[in-house]
Amino acid sequence: xxxxxxxxxxxxxxxxxxxxxxxxxxxxxxxxxxxxxxxxxxxxxxxxxxxxxxxxxxxxxxxxxxxxxxxxxxxxxxxxxxxxxxxxxxxxxxxxxxxxxxxxxxxxxxxxxxxxxxxxxxxxxxxxxxxxxxxxxxxxxxxxxxxxxxxxxxxxxxxxxxxxxxxxxxxxxxxxxxxxxxxxxxxxxxxxxxxxxxxxxxxxxxxxxxxxxxxxxxxxxxxxxxxxxxxxxxxxxxxxxxxxxxxxxxxxxx
Length: 254
Prior knowledge:
The protein is an all-alpha fold. Helices cover 90% and strands 0% of the residues. It is built from five helices and no strands. The chain is rod-shaped, with a radius of gyration of 75 Å.
C-alpha cells in the first residue's frame, strides 16, 4: 500500500519533469541576463568578487540538485528522491548556517584585528609624528651646521688667501733680507780684516809705547842715580861743590 502510494504516475512524473525543465530554463535565462549585465558591470572589490562567485556556486548547486532529482524521479518513479533532495538541501543549509556562524566569528575576529590595527595605526601615526618632529629638529640642526660649515669654509678660503699673500710678502722680505745680509756679511768681512789690522796695530803701538815708557823711566832712574853720584862725588858740573865743602864754617859764638 505504501509502495503504491509512494509511486507516481507517468502523468505526474511528466508534469514534474516539465516543471523542473521550466525552472532550469528560467535559471538559464537568469544566468544569460546576468552574464549580459556582467559585461557592463565588473566586480572591482574583493567582496563583490566573492559574492559573485558565491552566486554562481549556488546556481550551479541548484541546477545539479534539480537535474539529479529529475533523473532519480524518472528512474525510480517515487517521491523519495525529492525527500532526499530536500534533506540534502537542508544539510547544505545547515552547512551554510555553520559557515555563517564561522563567518560571524571570523568577522568578530576581523573586527578585533581591525581595532588592534586601528590602535597600531594610531600608535604608528603618533610615532611618525614624533619622528617627523625629530627629523625637523635634526634638519634645523643640519641647516645650522651647514651654515656654520659654509661660514668656516669661506673663512678658511679668506684666511688661506690672506696667509698666502702674507707668506709671499714674507718670502720676498726674506729674500731681500738674505741679499742685504750677504752684502752686510761681505762688508763685515772687509771691516773685520781692517779691524784685525787695527787691533794688531794698537797692540804693537801699545807694546812700543810701553817699551818706550819703560826705557824712559829706566833712563830717568839712571840719570837720577848718576846725578846723585855726581852730586855726592862733586864730579862734572858739580865740581864747585868741593870748594864749598873745603871752606871752614863760622865758629860758634860763646
